[in-house]
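User: Hey, my collaborator sent me this sequence without any context and asked if I could get a structure. I don't really work with proteins. Can you help?
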Amino acid sequence: MKPQWKYNYDYAQCMVMKLKMADPDKARLGKSKVLMTFEQALDFIKKVDAITQGIPKIYYLVGWQYLGHDDKYPDFFEVNEALKREQDATAYDSFRWLCETAKQYHSVVSVHINFNDAYDNAPSFDDFVRARALIRKKNGQPHAIEKYNGRACYKTCLKAYRESGLFKRQIDRFVELFPFIAETGTIHVDNFQCYKNFSPAVSIREMQDARRKMIAYVHEKGMDITSEFTYKETEDLHNRPIFGLPREHHRSAPMDTVGFIPMTWWCNRQTKKELVEVPPQVYCGGMFREKRYEKILYGNMHGEDILTTDNAHWAEDFLHQFATLQVPYHFLCAHKRLAIDGFGGNLHCTLSDGIESFGKTQTIAQNGVVRKEGDPLLLPLVQKKGQYIAYSKNGDNRTWNIPEAVGSAAQVYAITENGNAFINTLPIRNGALTLQIEPRQALLVVTEEA
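Assistant: No problem. I've predicted the 3D structure and written it out in structure-token form, which is a compact way to encode the shape of the chain:
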């Protein structure tokens, strides 16, 4: 299976994360509750680059616009002034500074936006009403399906949004205002679901067709779209969640945006067959919401829950997820999935090059050689030839087999947010390395091949 066009990134080999910047302040109307400034974001980006050994990273900023997250959609044309640096004239200047400076740390900074939600405080809201580009009830009135930040949240009718010319207008204006974001080649579009319109009647299928055309137009502007989860809407899907339950798509329906959206935060609702037949280079997930699949395929850490200004232990927490989730995920994504067998917690994934991943024991083996056993691991950092990540939550002392290693010695470094600290040089004898790992310690192991 191939994508509809060439993506700008191999999302299966990038770290794709979010940074939560701000929310509208409910206690102070018209103010922003700042969670992280642009300057603080760069400090995290620098330190994360040190931890991750300079592998490619993409960050989507949440709440970079207006007063913060979910404010004034479907517009996304003003930078949140509360996030600016003191030395800059405007928040726009600070935003551009962050995007440019982050490149020094192997990091792309882009935006988290929304094409689906509409609030009546958005400058363009009346345009959407006149164009009948909002989901309407049977009585012809716009339908406020949800509520965020204390405001009614309407949904856009994707078909009318596109056909009215409003979508082209919004995207063209965004690219003109933020050329440095367009140049990143990627944006995150949150909650890009399809809803059924009742006046005039527009089916889910028509909405899905409009969504694919919207994605194609963004692609024409040079940008990939990543999104929230796997979209599998069917005609009987209710617009509003029933009895307060999540609005759940049908697992048995086809993946509507496969080949159009390369990556989502949640790689969910997929069948075993789809997980095998759709390679991660075509569609991959940040995390597998079904934990049974996360135990054999791992996932791309979100970062947003760890990288916060009030988390004094963020580096330790980040190291743990990077080593136990991100590194195994990249390792497995570099190999072709051949089969997923078993049920529940006993799932087993077979991949090319003799690799097996066992859900019950959280073991990864290659041609019978154990690379990860429960928590302890020594796995290749696939973006860096001859480099390995070792980690143990509780501490570990054992001999690891690394038959592919070249040379007779390895340099061992402790990984920290301030850079790698050399520990010692250890011998590699007959393709084996004896390694002691302290509790919650992550090590970089560099062989002579590097």
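In plain terms: The CA atoms of residues 315 and 341 lie 36 Å apart. You can pass these tokens on to your collaborator as they are.
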